[in-house]
Amino acid sequence: MGANTLSLVQATVAAAEAQLRIHRLERLMDERTSPGRPSAPAFNKPLYRDSLQILGRDQGLLHVAGAAITLSERHTEILAMMALHPEGLSAEELSDKVYPEGTSLTSIRAEMVRLRKLLLAVAPSLVPESRPYRLPRPLVVDAEQVRNYLDRGAHRLALNIYRGEVMPRSLAPAISGLRTRVAVQLREAILNDASPEVLLSYLQLPEAADDVEAWRTALHLLPPRSPKRSAVVAHVAELEGESVTGR
Predict the structure, then answer these.
(1) Which pLDDT does position 47 carry in this prediction?
(2) How far apart are CA 59 and CA 61, in angstroms?
(3) Mean of pLDDT values over 66-73
(4) How many CB atoms lie within 10 A of CB 160?
(5) How far apart, in whole angstroms, are the C-alpha atoms of residue 45 and residue 111?
(6) Contacts (Cβ under 8 Å, ≥6 apart) of 186
(7) How far from 33 is each of 37, 39, 44, CA to CA, in Å?
(8) How confident is the model over 28-57, as pLDDT tens digits?
(9) What is the band of 230 on the pLDDT scale with cuts at 50, 70, 90?
């Protein structure tokens, strides 16, 4: 098999796998929105076999080998950084991304010892390697999947797995940066390209409750006779009233 043929086969396989993932997400979304079906159980299912959920959570939820493990905040931050940097991170790089202020490398190394011990007991295949610190195999992070779907214009799928801001209470510099990037990218994509239905779903998020521009955009997109328009008009009026009285 020639190099060009092999590349074509690999690209075809990758595309098929991506499409299968999309179909799975669409089925999950249908389960959540179909009448008579409970939404919470589907909402809590992992999107992939090996994944880390950090959206809307202060403590990450690791799905691996059919089990779900709740991690401490610090272990979540460390594991997320390694998952998002598969090439590996030095102790100095990992420390800078996790600790909000200058901290000795002893702290990050001690946390890595504890994380390795935990993973050795519950997920041996994910025990990190050293020099650099890296995971032995890929681990999907839900926040990064939101960004991937937005890059492809799949707004409904992105919003469907967005459970809230990335680790809202975390002070880790890299987590704070990721939190901002995901929230800004989601907002801009929804406001600029999404359908009225997707935009209305976005407006149900706590972070969008006081977003006057987003609510005005929904008002502009909704047809004049839409039954949902009156609620949007009332909320826009309320927000604008608060803006005036707050001056």
Answers:
(1) 58
(2) 7
(3) 93
(4) 21
(5) 28
(6) 146, 150, 158, 159, 162, 202
(7) 8, 7, 14
(8) 444 443 333 333 334 445 555 799 999 999
(9) very high
- Long-range residue pairs from 205-214, CB within 8 A, at least 24 positions apart, any chain: 205/162, 205/164, 206/164, 207/164, 207/165, 207/183, 210/239, 211/187, 212/236, 212/239, 212/240, 212/243, 214/187, 214/190
Strand extents, DSSP E, the chain: 51-53, 61-64, 67-70, 140-141
pLDDT given at position 243: 56
The C-alpha angle 67, 148, 49, rounded to 5 degrees, equals 15
Which region holds residue 152: left if phi is over 0, alpha if psi is between -120 and 50, else beta?
Answer: alpha
Tokens matching residue 146: 């939101």
pTM of the model as a whole: 0.76
CB 62 within 8 Å of CB 77: no
Nearest of 99, 54, 58 to residue 79 by alpha carbon: 54
Ramachandran category for residue 217: left, alpha or beta (phi over 0 → left; psi -120 to 50 → alpha) = alpha
Cα–Cα distance for residue pair 136/83, rounded to 1 Å: 10
End-to-end C-alpha distance for the chain, whole angstroms: 71
Distances (CA, A) of 61 to 39, 45, 166, 167, 209: 19, 11, 12, 11, 26
Q: Residue 186 and residue 55: Cα distance in Å, rounded?
A: 13
Q: pLDDT-derived band of residue 11, with 50, 70 and 90 as boundaries?
A: very low
